[in-house]
Design a protein that fits this description.
Chain B: Residues 117-299 form the ABC transmembrane type-1 domain. Chain B: InterPro entries: MetI-like, MetI-like_sf. Chain B: One of its GO terms (cellular component) is plasma membrane. The complex is a heterodimer of chains A (267) and B (315). Helix content of chain A is 38%, strand content 23%. Chain A has 267 residues and is of the alpha/beta class. In chain A, the strands form 2 sheets. A 6-stranded mixed sheet of chain A has the order 6-7-8-3-9-10, with helices on both faces. In chain A, strands 2-1-4-5 form a 4-stranded antiparallel sheet. By secondary structure, chain B is mainly alpha-helical. Chain B is built from 11 helices and 5 strands; from the N terminus they run H-H-E-E-E-H-E-E-H-H-H-H-H-H-H-H. Chain B has helices at residues 2-28, 39-46, 81-89, 110-144, 146-160, 168-175, 180-204, 208-216, 221-257, 265-274, 278-306; strands at residues 48-51, 63-67, 70-74, 93-95, 102-105. Chain B has 2 domains: 48-106, no CATH class; 111-313, MetI-like fold (Orthogonal Bundle), CATH 1.10.3720. The chains are: A alpha/beta (267), B mainly alpha (315). The structure holds adenosine-5'-triphosphate (ATP) and magnesium ion.
C-alpha cells in the first residue's frame, strides 16, 4: 500500500502581526493527496490557494499544523527536489534565453549535457516555442512566458507538480491543448498534481478531485471526487456526468461565497 | 536607421555651434586669453598646421627647423630639447595641396599632453581596477554574511558622503608624491563606495519569486549567488562603473594638483596655468575631458556586450 503523497494536518497560516493587519489565510486545513491524484483547488480570489500551495512546497511555514510529503517533512521533500512549481507569475530569469530558462533546474540537478539538450528540446516542442529558444523573456508575450515556466517545471519530471493558475494567461485553444498534454504527462509518469485554477470547466476536466475553498479565513468547504472515466479527451466534455459535476462544483463555490457573505453580515 | 543617425548628428551639430559661438564671443568682446582662450588657440596647441615651402605664417617669433627636405615651424616657446626630440619622432601626414605639400605637425604640446594623459590614465585605470575589485569583493562578502551587512552599511553610507578627495594630500604623503600609487589609492577609495553600494543593491534586491524558484529546486547558496544574484547585480554594477569612470579621472587629476611628477596631467595643467600658458592648460583639460568620455563609452560598450538580454538595448 503506497502512503499518501501529501498529508496536511490542521494547517493554519496567519499573516501579519497585530490584530489590525492580521490575515487568516488558512484555517484548519486537513488534506490528504494520494499518489497519482490530480487535485484542483478552486475558490474566490484571496482565499488562500497560493498560500496552500506554498505551504506544501515548503516556501512558507504554516503558523501551526504540519505537512508530511512523501513520508517526510516538506523541507526534506524540497531538498530532495520533489517539487516542480509553476508560479502564478512566470518568474523567468531576464538574463537567460528561453532555452536556458527551461534548462535552469536541469543545470541545478546535474543532468548530463546531452540529456539537458534533449529534454529542453522536447519541452520547447511541447509548449510550441522551439522557434523562440534563443529569445529573451522580454521578447515574449505574457502567455508565451507562462509556457516557458510550464516547460521549466515539467523538464525534470518532479514527483509533485504544484501549479498556480498555469494556464490563466493563455488563449482557449492553447489552454485546451496544454490541458491534454498535461494529462498525458501526468498519466505517463508517477506525478501527483496540485493545480490552482479559476475555471470550473478546467478543474472538472483535469482532476480526480476538486477542492473548493472559501475566503477569510481560508477553509476547505467541499471536496468533490471527479469520477469521469480516464483517459479524458474531447469526448469527456460532452459526457452528461461532466455537466453534473460542473454544476456540483459551481454550487459548492456559490455556497462557499454565500457563507462568506453570511458570516460577514453579523460582524 | 535615420533615427540613430540623427542621435549622433544632433549632439555633434550642437557641439560645433557652441564652439563657433565661443570663438565669436571671445573675439567680439575681446576677452583676455587668461580668462578664456579661443577654441582655435586651444586646438592650435594640439595640432599645428605647418605650411611647407617657406610661407610659414604661424607666429612671428617662430623658430624654423629643417629636417631632411621638409620645413617645420615651431611656435612660441622656442626649441627645447624635449620638443626637438618630439620633432624627430613626429609622424607626418602630407596633403598634396597645389604645387607644394602641407605637413601636419603633431604639435609641440600634443606630445607632452598625450604623454601626461597616458600617465594619468594609468593611475585612473589602476585605481578603478583596485576599487572595483574591492567594492565587488566586499559586496559579495556582505551578501553571504547578512550580519556584517547590517553592521557595515551605515558606515558605507556615511563614508559615501565624505569628500574623499580631501584625503589626497594625505595619500601623497603616505605613498610618496611621485609614486603613481598615491593617486591610485585616492581613486580606489573614491570609487569603492559607489561600486560597493550599487553591486550590493543588485545582489540583495532579488525578486522574491525568483528566490523561491531557486529554493524550490533546493539550490545551494553558492548556486543562488552565481545563477541569480550575480546576474541580477550586473546592471547595477555597470551603473556603479559609469559613476566610477567619471570619478576616476577626477580623482587622479585632482590628486596630482596636490603634487606629482612632472609628467602627470594634473601637474601639467597647474604648471601651464602658473606660467600663463592658458591655451595649453585648456588643451590639457580638453584632452582630460575626452579621456573621461572615452572611459564612459568603453563602459557603455562593455555593458552592451555583457548584458545583451537587457531590455534597454531593445533593437
Ligand atoms: N506574504 C504575505 N504577507 C501577508 N499577507 C499575505 C501574504 N501572502 C498572501 N497573503 C494574504 O493571504 C490571503 C490569501 O492569499 P493567496 O495569495 O493565497 O490567495 P489566492 O487564493 O491565491 O488568490 P488569487 O486567486 O487572487 O491568486 C490574501 O488575503 C493575502 O492578502
Ligand atoms: Mg494565487
Amino acid at each position: 500500500m503506497t502512503e499518501p503523497v501529501v498529508v496536511l494536518e490542521n494547517v493554519d497560516k496567519i499573516f501579519g502581526e497585530g490584530a489590525a493587519d492580521q490575515v487568516h489565510a488558512l484555517k484548519e486545513i486537513n488534506l490528504q493527496i494520494e499518489q497519482n491524484d490530480f487535485i484542483s483547488l478552486i475558490g474566490p480570489s484571496g482565499c488562500g490557494k497560493s498560500t496552500l500551495l506554498r505551504v506544501v512546497g515548503d516556501l512558507i511555514q504554516p503558523s501551526s499544523g504540519g505537512a508530511v510529503i512523501n513520508g517526510k517533512s516538506a523541507r526534506q521533500a524540497r531538498l530532495d527536489q520533489d517539487y516542480g512549481i509553476v508560479f502564478q507569475a512566470a518568474t523567468l530569469y531576464d538574463w537567460r534565453t528561453v532555452a536556458k530558462n527551461v534548462q535552469l533546474p536541469l543545470e541545478l540537478m546535474q543532468f548530463s549535457r546531452s540529456e539537458k539538450d534533449r529534454r529542453t528540446q522536447a519541452m520547447l516542442e511541447l509548449v510550441e516555442l522551439t522557434d523562440f529558444a534563443a529569445h529573451y523573456p522580454w521578447q515574449l508575450s505574457g502567455g508565451m512566458q507562462q509556457r516557458v515556466a510550464i516547460a521549466r517545471a515539467l523538464s525534470f519530471e518532479p514527483s509533485i507538480l504544484l501549479m498556480d493558475e498555469p494556464f490563466g494567461a493563455l488563449d482557449e485553444m492553447t489552454r485546451e491543448r496544454l490541458n491534454l498534454e498535461l494529462l498525458n504527462i501526468w498519466r505517463k509518469t508517477d506525478t501527483t498534481v496540485l493545480f490552482v485554477t479559476h475555471s470550473i470547466t478546467e478543474a472538472v476536466f483535469l482532476s480526480t478531485r476538486v477542492i473548493v475553498m472559501s475566503a477569510r479565513p481560508g477553509r476547505i468547504t467541499a471536496d468533490i471526487a471527479i469520477d469521469l472515466p480516464q483517459p479524458r479527451n474531447s469526448e469527456t466534455r460532452s459526457n452528461v456526468r461532466f455537466f453534473e459535476l460542473e454544476t456540483e462544483v459551481r454550487n459548492a463555490l456559490r455556497i462557499s461565497e454565500g457563507g462568506q457573505a453570511a458570516s460577514r453580515a453579523p460582524a | 536607421m535615420s533615427e540613430s543617425r540623427q542621435r549622433i548628428w544632433a549632439p555633434v551639430l550642437i557641439l560645433v555651434a557652441l564652439v563657433i559661438l565661443w570663438e565669436t564671443l571671445v573675439t567680439a568682446f575681446n576677452i583676455q586669453q587668461f580668462l578664456l582662450p579661443k577654441p582655435s588657440a586651444i586646438l592650435g596647441n594640439l595640432a599645428q598646421v605647418v605650411v611647407h615651402g617657406g610661407t610659414a605664417s604661424t607666429g612671428e617669433s617662430a623658430a624654423e627647423l629643417s629636417l631632411g627636405n621638409r620645413f617645420f615651424v615651431v611656435l612660441p616657446g622656442g626649441l627645447t630639447p624635449e620638443i626637438e626630440e618630439n620633432l624627430q619622432n613626429a609622424r607626418w601626414v602630407e596633403f598634396p595641396f597645389g604645387a607644394r605639400s602641407v605637413s601636419v605637425v603633431r604639435g609641440s604640446n600634443l606630445t607632452p599632453i598625450l604623454a601626461a594623459s597616458w600617465f594619468t590614465l594609468k593611475e585612473a585605470l589602476g585605481g578603478m581596477a583596485m576599487g572595483t575589485l574591492a567594492g565587488v569583493a566586499v559586496a559579495l562578502a556582505t551578501t553571504r554574511w547578512t550580519a556584517s551587512r547590517e553592521a557595515l552599511l551605515p558606515f558605507a553610507i556615511a563614508a559615501n558622503s565624505m569628500p574623499i578627495i580631501a584625503f589626497a594630500p594625505i595619500m601623497n604623503n603616505w605613498f610618496g608624491i611621485d609614486n603613481p600609487f598615491s593617486k591610485m589609492a585616492i581613486v580606489t577609495v573614491m570609487i569603492f563606495f559607489p561600486i560597493m553600494i550599487n553591486t550590493l543593491r543588485g545582489l540583495i534586491s532579488v525578486d522574491s519569486r525568483s528566490l523561491e524558484l531557486m529554493r524550490s529546486y533546493a539550490a545551494s547558496d553558492t548556486e543562488i549567488l552565481f545563477k541569480l544574484r550575480i546576474p541580477n547585480a550586473l546592471p547595477s554594477l555597470f551603473s556603479g562603473l559609469k559613476v566610477a569612470g567619471a570619478l576616476a579621472m577626477i580623482g587622479a587629476i585632482v590628486g596630482e594638483y596636490f603634487g606629482g611628477p612632472r609628467i602627470a596631467l594634473g601637474v601639467f595643467i597647474t604648471q601651464e596655468a602658473a606660467l600663463f600658458r592658458f591655451a595649453s592648460a585648456w588643451a590639457a583639460i580638453i584632452v582630460a575631458c575626452l579621456i573621461g568620455i572615452t572611459i564612459y563609452l568603453v563602459i557603455l560598450l562593455a555593458e552592451r556586450l555583457a548584458l545583451p538580454w537587457h531590455p534597454t538595448f531593445r533593437a
